[in-house]
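Q: What changes when adenosine monophosphate is included in the input?
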Amino acid sequence: MKHNSINVLILGSGGREHAIAWKIKQSPFLNKIFVAPGNSGTSNIATNINININNYNSIKNTILEHEIHIVIVGPEDPLVHGLHNMCKNDTDISNVTIIGPQKEGALLEGSKSFAKKFMQKNKIPTAKYEKFEAKNIRPAKSYLKKMPPPYVIKVDGLAAGKGVFICEDIKEANRVLEDLSVSSRFGEAGETIVIEEFLKGIEMSVFILTNGNSYKILPVAKDYKRIGENDTGLNTGGMGAVSPVPFMNQELLKKVETKIIQPTIKGLKKENISYIGFIFFGLINVEGEPYVIEYNVRLGDPETQVILPRIESDLLELFINIEKNSIFKNIPIKISELNAATIILSSGGYPEKYSKGHIVTGCDDVTESILFHAGLKAENNKHLTNGGRVLAVTSLHKKAKIAIQKCYSSIEKIHFKNVYFRRDIGKDIIK
Ligand code: AMP
Ligand code: GLY
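A: The predicted holo structure follows.
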């Protein structure tokens, strides 16, 4: 493999995709990098291509026109809808490496009931569960009666983080079930419902890169999903993250590897599901025992903004060789000892209604942190807010506490109308 020879296309437009582009950009093997549709951050380091990433023909044309060798799929939707399968079945582009599983593997994220059954079959620790049809909720209501509160109710399919309900009492839980039985807001995703036992513990995110045979464990992170401080208020895509996670010691990581990662890889093989890409294990640590809350078939956002800056190995080299197991398995993955933190600057009102188009100033004055753009666009040499999560401010330092402080000092320099961010990122686990 020659230096400056590989053309890469990244699909997506968030902080995660900016961070992936930033990392790939450092590889000597890279020739050209494209991001579709990208954002103002990716346009500084790559070529943005304004296409709909759920439109197969647009992606195919982009791959052919720019002679793309590797496609990295940021979000889950295109994977769940079979993008990888379509590329593999199309002789014009079947030799392109797609980082992200085919739709059979993407079911780990695309269907909660598939994922739960998979874990049960493969003895992977997870909360007890039962699945029900939304149109007939009587059995679901009787199941709830036998369980202690709080109650965890989930719609089966993709729901952009809005399909999980944690109810404190049975009345509220029954109300959620009744609503799901008549509401069509989740479409097909809501036709099946999963009810789970509630697990109490601290959550963490573990990521691997795998080709279905070998895997590399990437840095572990913790994200902060709720909008409000002390984990209160509505769920968001994520308001900040830290990596590493102090309570993830060698003993716990070993348990994650033997009880969760290895049985997942073996389970996929047993079912003849080939898998190229990332697996994101959303875990909960219940008194020293890891349980899987959910699988995702992609990297997390904003976890990516803290894990990629800690990977010292060349990620592009791993992607180039991912389909050649004998090479892939022998490439070591080197992880920095530094601590990373990222804090999301969001538009006030997010995750509900918020306004866009406000001028963002001060980004150029930030020297101590890396800024990953998300809902931000450039117009007439100005930066304008263009989404709920606007920017991720990432810092690194030997000491976790100082990495976090560096983020907050950088944030002081950035201004836009109605800016909101959490002031307690990392506070619960970093002393
Ligand atoms: P999910 O979309 O499945 O990751 O669920 C969203 C969030 O709901 C998780 O990050 C947890 O905070 C919470 N959650 C989901 N399932 C459970 C469970 N069985 N026990 C406790 N909390 C849960
Ligand atoms: N930060 C959680 C996710 O990307 O799903």
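Observations recorded in class: The first strand starts at residue 6 and ends at 12.
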